[in-house]
Amino acid sequence: MEMTDELYARITALCAEGDALAEEDDGLADAKLKFEEALQLMPGDPLDWEMGTWIFCALGDMAYLSGDLAVAHEHFNSAVRGPGGFGQPFIHLRLGEIAFEDGRMDRAADELTRAYMGAGLEVFELEDPKYLAFLRTKIHMDE
């Protein structure tokens, strides 16, 4: 499948609108709708495209920030399988946080380690400190 310049521009514009809405107070639901619309416009399997990976990541983040960990897990699992997804620190961070909250501590340690190995301590800067504290009990970390 091919993506025309017009379609690429439309999907990119929807994602930019979603990003802007996500920054607003109470904007997560509206942002989610923009990302869902962008995903629906993707030709073929969205996971054939790096753009699809990032849309799944954005949808996962909207769900995570809204407290819907089951939906967030589905979206981040899709994102990690898409082009550029595996090894991407933010995706692994969220997968680790979700696993932690679900009580899957071995999986949480694995995913949080991947996030740390890919981006260092910076990936944890805006997150609840409990995730970094947990990871420190599992691996040696350079400070």
Characteristic key phrases:
7 helices; 70% helix; single chain; mainly alpha
General description of the model:
By secondary structure, the chain is mostly helical. 70% of the residues lie in helices and 0% in strands. It is built from seven helices and no strands. It has helices at 5-23, 28-41, 50-66, 69-81, 89-102, 105-119, 129-136. Helix 4 runs antiparallel to helix 5 (89-102). It is globular.
In a few lines, what is going on in this structure?
With 143 residues, the protein is an all-alpha fold.
**Could you give the order of the helices and strands?**
HHHHHHH
- What are the segments in which pLDDT stays under 50 over at least 5 consecutive residues? none
Biggest sheet descriptor: none
Average pLDDT reading: 96
Q: Structural class of the helices, strands and pairings?
A: mainly alpha
The total of helices stands at: 7
Supply Rg: 16 Å
Strand element count: 0
* Oligomeric status: single chain
Helix content: 55-70%
